Amino acid sequence: MTRLPAGSRADAAVGAFRTCPRTAPEKTMPQGPTMIAWKNEPGRTARCPACGARDGQTHSLDVTSPLTGDTLSLYACAGCGSRFYDPFVPFESDRFYTDRHIQYYVEAGAGIGSILQPLVSLRLAPGSRRFLDVGCGFGFSLDFATHVLCWSAVGVEPSRMGRAGKAALGVAISNDYLENIPALQAARFDVISTSEVLEHVGDPAAFVDMLASRMTPGGVLVLGTPNAELVAPETDAATLMGILSPHFHTVLFSERALRRLLDRFGFAHVHVAKTGHQLMAHASHRPFRLEPLPRRDPLVILKYLMDAAGRLAGRPAVMIGFLYRALTGATHLGLYPMGARIAPSLRRAVAAAYGLDLDDHAAVAARLDAVTDFEDLGGRLPYCLFGIYYGLGMAALHVENDPARAIGCFDMGFAACRRFLDISLENFAEAAHLLWIMRLKGGMARIAAGDAAGARRAFGEIVAAAHDPSPYRGIAPPPHVLEQARDMA
Length: 489
Fold this sequence. Notes:
Helices cover about 45% and strands about 15% of the residues. It is an alpha/beta fold. The strands form three sheets. It has a seven-stranded mixed β-sheet, sandwiched between helices. A five-stranded antiparallel β-sheet has the order 1-2-3-4-11, with no helix packed on it. Strand 3 and strand 4 form a beta hairpin. It is globular and about 65 Å long. This is Class I SAM-dependent methyltransferase. InterPro entries: SAM-dependent_MTases_sf.
């Protein structure tokens, strides 16, 4: 998911469908779960952008924007189950596309796997393909489609993010709104992708109509958008704030509403899957083949990430972003030897870009302590620092057989998770996900090192946080981590 400041992938598509932006006042921001106040007040009148229903809506929650301090009201639609803001108060996204935010997106924020997997799982007949990504952001999908799938790929992204990606990756990105680009008016495409855009659009039907009009007769639309079902108290605060994204997301679709929207435009063949925080739809007027991701598909993406890092060695932030995702991808797949082979290149890239030795934990800790805000963070440390330490720790534990080194990595990763979440809860959902996994793995490494007392302290901290997560921005240990900690304590 693209985290706040959102809007890049949306701006490319919205054009005439968006409303006027506003300017933010200076206000003190609330912290943690206090940003969200659950209401559940039925019987309200408000128009749902997904289906047009007005009556019997439920005032679901109020959320305070971490950018403006304003409080916005979110409603649950009685007609289709979607969620939407009323009134929706938009924000001018390009004001927040500083160099640091682009760096964040490239190093950590872009969900490259979630962007690429729907393309990999689509099994098309052999032959050249024309591919359009509407709201392509930095252009990762275009780079992958060009170098791996051998498609003819173009993207639409008018923001600074698109200009930066065009320069860095050398991909074809038009820096304007789709309806303003003459060369794309008559063009037709075999695959059109739009990821994390629909939720920003004030008129979703007009937007999908525009995309459908640019498809070949057998073309496939690939559409990803946050899942409204995850707007629930049990969703962790970091993920929930990213989904809500006040001032940027206007409507969050339910699966039922998304299917209705695609049916409305005559897509006879529709597949909708729930993947992570997203609904991922493939839709076409003709039959298409979509396969569950076999093991080889993540390896295709891993190879792309490593090859891209080699191609872009002269661009430190881009190289770090690719290597970080390759390291964590290999780690999540249990390919620890591959992660260990990636680690030295990533260490060198961080040293070259930041003048920082990742093994010098005292120096890293000093920089963490000195960070003042989100912008300052990117000048001192990689935005993906916490995930780097997780991958390094797993390599030390499973390949190098060095539990002492693993302990240092997991402890630094845990400290980085906490500091990053203090700085920006909504931008670091991955840090929230890894926080207690990092502590659990640190306890296991202490067992391997013969430090039973240290292991008990680590597991005890996890158990205590389940009762009171407030010191950790409200991030409680997930059930599977808590169960393991209790068993091992």
